[in-house]
Amino acid sequence: MNTTMKKSTVSSIDNSASPFVQLKNINLTDCQWTNGFWAEKFKTCEDIMVPYMGEVLCGDIGHALNNFKIAAGEKEGEHKGMFWHDGDFYKFIEAKIYVYAQNKDIKILEEIDHYIRIIAKAQEADGYLQTQIQLRPEVDRYENRKYHEMYNTGHLLITACVHFRVTEQRTFLDIAIKHADLLHTIFMPETKHYGRFGFNQTQIMGLVELYRTTEDKKYLALAERFINNRGVYAVEHNDTTIGYPIGDMVQERTPLRESTEAVGHAVLALYFYAGAADVAAETGEEALIKALDRLWENVTQKKMYLTGAVGQAHYGASTNLDMIEEGFINEYMMPNMTAYNETCANICNAMFSYRMLGLHGASKYADIMELVLYNSALSGISIEGNSYFYANPLRMLNNTRDYDAHENVTETPNREPYLSCFCCPPNLVRTIAQVSGWTYSIAKNGIALNLFGSSVLKTTLTDGSSLVIHQDTEYPWKGLVKLTIEECKDTAFDILVRIPSWATGATLTINGTKTDAPVTAGKYAIINKNWKKGDLLVLDMPMDVQIIEGHPRIEEVRNQIAVKRGPIVYCIESPDLPKHTSILDVYFNKNASLEATHKPDFLGGITTLQGELLIRKDKSESMYRTVQKPEFESYKTQLVPYFAWSNRGQAEMTVFMPVVWE
Ligand SMILES: [Zn+2]
C-alpha cells in the first residue's frame, strides 16, 4: 500500500479538488449546530439513533456484526439478513464517524476500531469481502447481481474514505483499497460476461470517493466503466441476472447519456445518477451532465411527491412496460395511499440534488435537498429516534392492506423498531448526522448558504482566508434568519443566500438597509461587498400557510389540496379527529383560516396549524352512487407536520384533502 494521499477536506463527498464543480463542500465539522431544529435532531442522533442502531446491528436481532465475526472465524453460525446487510452496516459506521467528527468521543472511535479489526479479519487475502457470499459456500463470487456485491462495495469504499478523512488512520482505507484493486482486475476489462453486472450501483460513488482520497485514476476509470457498460448489452436474462426484473428496473434499457426519463427502482436509479454526477464532477463530460440535467428535471418535475419523495409504486411497470419494483412508474401517476416512497429513495433524491448543486451552483437543487430533509426523509424515523418507516405514503387508511401477507411487504402501518430489510434506517441516520455539512458550500469567491439552522460556521475560502459566520434562526418554524460576520478577509467576497422557491416576498437587509442585490424566490441572492466583522445580514421569509394543488394531469389529487408552510408539508392525522372518523371523510374548507401555533412540548416541538376542517356526514359503502349536495360538519382541529405523523399510536393520515371552495 504505497498509494500517496492528498490533503483532503473532511467531507462525505470531497469535491474540493474536482475541476468541474461550482460549489464545493465545506468540511464536515466546519458548520456546527448551536440550537434549534437541527441541533436537536443531531442530539437525538448522537444520544439515541446511533447507539440504539448499534445495539440492534451488533446484537443477534440485527446480526450484521455477527456476519463479519463468522466470516472472520471468530464466531460459529450462518449469514443472516439481506444480501446487502454488509452495506447497511457500513452506513451505520459512517453515521458513527460523523458523530465522532463532531463530538470527538473517544469511546465511539474505539468501537469503530473494534468493527474495523473484525472486518479486516473477514477480508480474504485477495481483497474480496462480502459476508453474504463468503458464508454461502454454494454461491460463487460475482455469480449473480442479486447478491448485491456492488452495493456493499460502494458503502465499504465511502465509509472507509470518510474514516480516513476524519481519523487520518489507514486501517479501514487499506481494506477498501485492497478490495477496489480486486474489483478493478475483474471489472475493468470489457467482458460480455460482466458487462451488465451490478444491481444497486453504489460502487460508482464509492470508486469516485476512493479516487478523490488516493488520487489513483484507475478508480475513476473503473467508475466510468460501470456507467459506459450500462445500456449497451442485450436485455435478456442470463445466469447473472436471475432473481429480479431486468431492463428498466436496473436502468439497462437505455445508455445513461441518452436517457430522458428516470426509470426503474428508485434507489438504484438515483444512486446511479448520483455516482454519474460524481464522475462528471471529475471529467466535466458534457453529454453526461446534459443527461443528468434531463433526469433531474424528470424526477423533480414529473415523478416526485409534494414531500420530495420518489418511487411511486412497490410493483409496477415502466413507461416501456418493463416490470419494476420499488420505483418509478409513469409521469404524473402519483397514488397517495399506495405510494411506496422508500426512505432511501427520498434520501437519494437529496443526495443526487446535492451533487447537482455542486455541478451547477443553482439553488433549485438545494430546494429539493431541503424539501426531502424536512419531509420525506425525517418521516422515516420516529421523534424518539428508535423506530422506522421503510415506505412513506401520503395517505394511510387502516385495515385496507395485509401487512403480513408475505416477507416482501415492506410497508407498515406504524414505524417498526427493526426492519429486516435495513437499508433505510442507517441511510437516514448518516444523513441526519452530516446535514450540517450541507448547510454551506464554498463558492468561487465566497460562501453559499444552502440550508437554514442556528449554527457557527468556521471555514476557509478558496484563497485560504478564514471566514466565521454565526447563523441565528428558529427555522423551519419562523422565517427570520440572521447571519453575523464574526471574522473575514478584508477584500470583497460574495455571500450567496438561498431564497427558497416558495419564499416569494422574502427580503434581505444588510445592517438594516435593504440590499440592492436581486432577491428572487428560487435563486441565490448574491451580495458582493467588503464584509467586515459585525456585519448583520437578515433574511426574512414570509411563513404564510400555502395551499398547494397538483398539476391537472395528476389524477390522484384532482380537486384536492395540501397545506404547506415554509418547507414543511402538513397532514391531518386521526388523533386530531373525532373518534372513528375515516380520513376519507375529511375535507378542506377553503374559507377557514389556519393559524400557526408553536407547541414546544408536542411531538418534539413543532408548529401546528389550527383551524376548521369539514367532516362529511352522508356516507355510503357502495362503489358508485347518485349524489346530491353532500352534508358536512365543521370540526376544529390541527394539522401536524407530515414528518411527525404516526408518533401517537396507529393512525390514519392524509396529506391531500378534497377541497370545498365555498
Ligand atoms: Zn432503504
What would you note in describing this structure?
This protein is of the alpha+beta class and 662 residues long. It contains 14 helices and 25 strands. The chain has a seven-stranded antiparallel β-sheet with strand order 2-9-10-11-16-13-14. Strands 18-19-23-22-20-25 form a six-stranded mixed β-barrel. A five-stranded mixed β-sheet has the order 1-7-8-12-15. A hairpin with a 6-residue loop joins strand 10 (466-473) and strand 11 (480-487). The longest helix has 22 residues, at 37-58. The protein is globular, with a radius of gyration of 25 Å. The mean pLDDT is 96. The structure holds zinc ion. Zinc ion is lined by residues 342-344, 423-424, 427.
Short précis:
With 662 residues, the protein is of the alpha+beta class. It contains 14 helices and 25 strands. The strands form four sheets. A seven-stranded antiparallel beta sheet has the order 2-9-10-11-16-13-14. Strands 18-19-23-22-20-25 form a six-stranded mixed β-barrel.
